[in-house]
Amino acid sequence: MLIKVFMFAHHHHPAAVVLASGEDSLAYLQSQWSSQLDSQGENQATYGLRLNRKGRILADGFILRKDDENFLIVSYDCPAANLIALLEENVVADDVEFEDRTDGHEIISLWGGDYEAISSQFAFTLPKANSFAVTEFGLIFWGRKTKPANIDILADEEHAKALSKFLKKSTKEGIVTIANANSLTLARIESGMPAIPIEMGPGELPQEGGLEDGAVDFDKGCYLGQEVMARIHSMGQVQRVLLPTTKKKDPPKTFPADLFLEGKKVGQLKSFFKYKSKPNGLGMVLVRHNLLPEIRATGLSLLPSSEPKIFIK
After folding, report:
1. CA dihedral 285, 288, 290, 291 (to 10 degrees)
2. Stretch 237-244: mean pLDDT
3. Beta-bridge partners for 64
4. Residue ranges of domains in the chain, CATH in brackets
5. Is the pTM of this model over 0.90?
6. 213: which residues sit within 8 A by CB, 6+ positions away?
7. 146-165: pLDDT as tens digits
């Protein structure tokens, strides 16, 4: 007898699936990525960032370790060409090559339900923390679209039929509801999960978007931006913070848009999305941390002299 499980699923295409291969792949990626990759064993899945030397965010992605010489780098929003250019930037005599494998790959994100129950019903193995499971549907790992973590299934053309069958059956049985992109974005913003480089990019530090937890390793050796990360970690709080926001009426036409508190610039509106279920819309703002009490009390405006239309809980 089936146990009814309800969750959402959304199909989307990753911006990048890059294969890193070669004898020096592990050592090279370890020097470029903000997270610890030097764990023993195969099937490791590690989320992290590519920072510049000043600790600002240039890209993000999951590194799926197939073996010591082959890694898949998967990014939701960082285009493959940009990611490869960053990865190749510091290659000198390293035996490592990067190949764009994005075409033919898709991701199904599952969120909002009982993962243990749905995995048992459809006979796939849930991955352990910081690992991925190889299944008939594709590679399954814990994603970063929502909090708590969602499930991501990375499928190539070979796995697409099995994945389609899985979704069709689960939808028919009322276990999974196919959601649109807006629903996933809504869940992401309500969770406070930033999109990179849309909401956190070359002007921002990981700590400003809460990314130090799970995306930055403070114990690993030298990597790009490590000195800045260590300095902030020892000092404590950063000056700005990224937070979900609601906005009345129409959003600005370009992003980021400056935000004002009583005529003084105090941050930026990084993104804004409209939803039928949220008449005012939702977005992300990057604002001064020390001004949060005043910002929450009065709201923010898009012009120095206009009335507040942007509000943070």
Report:
1. -70
2. 94
3. 45, 72
4. 1-236 (3.30.1360.120), 239-313 (2.40.30.110)
5. yes
6. none
7. 998 899 999 999 898 888 88
